[in-house]
Design brief:
Layout lengths: L13 H7 L2 H4 L3 H17 L5 H20 L11 H13 L1 H4 L7 H36 L5 E6 L2 E7 H26 L1 E2 L15 H7 L4 E2 L3 H6 L2 H28 L6 E2 L18 H24 L13 H25 L1 E2 L1 H10 L4 H10 L4 H18 L8 H7 L7 H4 L2 H7 L8 H16 L1
The structure holds arginine (ARG).
Length: 457
């Protein structure tokens, strides 16, 4: 029998009940539902809205239900409408009339808004910690590779020399910003909808400050219509998670390239790669491809939330029940991806020789060759032209700037002397890029130190 049986003359159709029910996916909020109900019952008792005795029985009963769910003694009823109804019905089953008093001056509308905030607050804390761990792994890898020269790319064309550490620290910056976005999201959503009622507050003299404080919120939400119908925090979180996935996906794309025979900059640990059913030679970076693919899913979740909300009149509408599967999927996907990506990065082998060989081949010191002339007094544009002409000459002769004879250099200008080879050596080119944020080992050491400081904060 449904809770609203008084108003109805028939039982709900079975298909409609299944269609309407959200317990299959909102049962995961059981702990937060109970946590919210305990705070509500505490407040009802302290404010004299129900007796202190009843309030204590409810709190005890809720504690028992929580224990029984966690021990597996109590199973969710799949025909219940949602987790809120399930817990309340169970309490009533156990404590009769006292259980029926729990929902005084409350609605499922403020209850679901509350539960979801409480649930996501915990998830955000977990994801934050996971992203922080990933950053630490990347920083550690960077520390071992501050002298590992590799080509830096633009347009996926070899451009200028950098180090593997410099490249890794770029991602650390992205993930540190992601942590900041998680913190912002958590901060803004940490307000309490409980006490909004169905939409229009309540006639009881409730204490919203008390429940907000009991549940660790900064304050109650100022407007009850907004309290029950705001899902900005889900959208904001889905956005933050989408950006995390975008970063992971870009990184994954590079890992995929680096694992190819064309690059061979890194090798994944066997435990983090897969083989082929037909081609015995294959070692595939499936994890990273899946992360790239799953990024689409999280973007889809964000889009679901934005689209679901866009036409809803105030206040609560049942459309909003769709928020949970979308945000849960985004949360689950990000956790799964970070959890897999982190140890994969932790265990990979860096192929320093191949990185260096690639850096030596692509004329990535052509800018440095021009800068050599500039430092001897030539205007940059003229030096740029000479360096370009020398590159063309090398290509036609199958040489590199390092192997081009000095006579050829001096044909262009006698500003060139033997020391040009030293000036365009990869080591000089990298060490010379000591500007703030640059790839020189010293400059990257500063980036590492700053990142470590931020990650400890
Ligand atoms: N299961 C519902 C949801 O997830 C809870 C709120 C139901 N409120 C209502 N008025 N039917 O949104």
């Amino acid at each position: 029998m449904a809770l609203w049986a008084g108003r109805f003359s028939k039982e709900i159709d079975e298909t409609v009940n299944a269609f309407n029910s959200s317990i299959a996916f909102d049962a995961r909020m059981y702990k937060h539902d109970i946590q919210g109900s305990i705070a509500h019952a505490t407040m009802l008792g302290k404010c004299g809205i129900i007796s202190l005795e009843d309030s204590q029985i409810i709190i005890k009963g809720l504690g028992e239900i929580l224990e029984d769910i966690e021990s597996g003694k109590l199973e969710f009823d799949p025909t219940a409408e949602d987790i809120h109804m399930f817990v309340e019905a169970e309490l009533t089953k156990r404590y009769g009339d006292v259980g029926k008093r729990l929902h005084t001056s409350r609605s499922r509308n403020d209850q679901v808004a509350l539960d979801l905030r409480l649930y996501l607050r915990d998830e955000i804390a977990e994801i934050r910690e996971m992203v922080r761990k990933l950053c630490k792994v990347l920083v550690e890898l960077a520390e071992k590779n501050t002298e590992t020269v590799m080509p830096g790319y633009t347009h996926l064309q070899r451009a200028q020399p950098i180090t593997f550490a410099h490249h890794l620290m770029a991602y650390v910056q992205m993930f540190i910003r992601d942590i900041g976005r998680l913190d912002d999201t958590a901060k803004r959503m940490n307000v309490c909808p409980l006490g909004s009622g169905a939409l229009a507050g309540t006639t009881y003299h409730i204490d919203r400050e008390m429940t907000a404080e009991l549940l660790g919120f900064d304050s109650p939400m100022p407007n009850s219509l907004d309290g029950v119908s705001d899902r900005d925090y889900c959208i904001e979180l889905a956005n933050t998670l989408s950006i995390i996935m975008m970063h992971l996906s870009r990184f994954s794309e590079e890992v995929i390239l680096w694992c190819s025979w064309e690059f061979k900059f890194i090798e994944l640990d066997d435990a983090y790669a897969t083989g082929s059913s037909i081609m015995p030679q294959k070692k595939n970076p499936d994890i990273t491809e899946l992360i790239r693919g799953k990024t689409a899913r999280v973007y889809g979740d964000l889009n679901t939330l934005l689209t679901m909300m866009k036409g809803l009149p105030l206040a609560y509408n049942k459309d909003m029940q769709e928020d949970k599967e979308a945000i849960f999927d985004a949360v689950d996907t990000v956790k799964l991806c970070v959890k897999t990506f982190t140890p994969m990065m932790e265990t990979l082998t860096v192929n320093k020789e191949n990185m260096r060989a690639a850096a030596a081949k692509g004329f990535i010191n052509a800018t440095d060759c021009a800068d050599y002339l500039v430092k001897k007094g030539m205007p940059f544009r003229d030096a740029y032209k000479i360096s370009g002409t020398l590159v063309a000459e090398c290509i036609s002769k199958g040489l590199t700037l390092e192997t081009l004879p000095i006579e050829e250099y001096r044909k262009m200008t006698d500003l060139f002397t033997e020391d040009v080879y030293e000036a365009i050596s990869l080591e000089t080119c990298v060490k010379g890029r000591l500007s703030q944020g640059g790839p020189s080992p010293d400059a990257v050491a500063v980036q590492i130190a700053l990142a470590k400081e931020k990650l400890e904060a």
